[in-house]
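User: Okay, second chain of the day. Same drill as before: sequence in, C-alpha cells out.
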Amino acid sequence: MVRVAKRFCIDRYEDILIDARSGERASPYYSPSSKTARYTEEVWQSKRLTVGDAQAQAMALPPLPAWQRERDVEPKAVSRKGVTPNGYVSGVQAGEACRNAGKRLCTIEEWKTACRGEQNRQFPYGDKYQQGKCNVFREAHPGAILHDDVTTGHTDPRLNLVTFKGKPLLRKTGETPECKSQWEDDGVYDMVGNLDEWVDDAHGSFAGGFYSRSAREGCERSTKAHPNIYADYSTGVRCCADLPSVASPPSPPGSDEPEL
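Assistant: Same drill. C-alpha cells below.
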C-alpha cells in the first residue's frame, strides 16, 4: 500500500479477488457469486450468437473455473502489479473484499486526495487533461465492438477481453506508468481510468471512470447512478486502511498486507 498525506494508506494497484478460504484466484470476468456467474455463462453462451457481427459472435467466453461454478467466492482484495483487475464487482462485494483483507473501502474524500497526489492536481499527471496519459476515454467501446450497442449487455464476460487495433482496452495493473499519483517516493496507479472503483457510500458511488468512459474530469470524476448491489464489467475495487499506530516492517513482495 501507499501512504497518503500521512493520514491513511491506499492500495497501489486496482485489486484482484482471491477466495479468502482457499486462496484461489477468482476469474476477473465473472461475478464472485456462483449463482450469478453460472447464470451469466449460460445466458451469454447463446446470446453472444445473436448480437454483433460474425467476428464478435465467434469470440468465445472466458472459462469459468470449476470451483467458482460450485461455490461463491469469499472475496478478499489483493493489490498486485501486472495482473488483470477484477471487474463485475458490486459495491457490497467490494466492501466485503476489503474487510476480508483487513482493510476498508475508501471514502470519496480519501479517494480524491490519493488521486490528486502530493501536488494536489486534478489529474495524476498534472493540472490539465491529456488524452492517453491514463487509460480513459479510449477510442473504442467494447459494447460497440461486441454488440453494436454500448447501452446493453453489460454482464457479457467477454467485454474486458476486447482489443482495438491489437491493443487491449482494459490494461493490466500498473501498465500505464504516466497515470501515477505521486506520494513521497511512491505512487498509486490507475486511479483515473482502467476500472471504476467503488467508494464508501451507503447509496452507491464509484470514482475514476473506466477505460471507455468519455470523462475528462480526472480525480473529480464520480458516479452515483447505481446502488451498491449493482455490478458490471467496468466496476472494480481498491481499498484503503488506517495507518498503523506502530510502524511495521515492509511486507514481502506479492503480499497483500499493508506496506508503508
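The CA atoms of residues 142 and 255 lie 32 Å apart.

User: Thanks, on to the next one.
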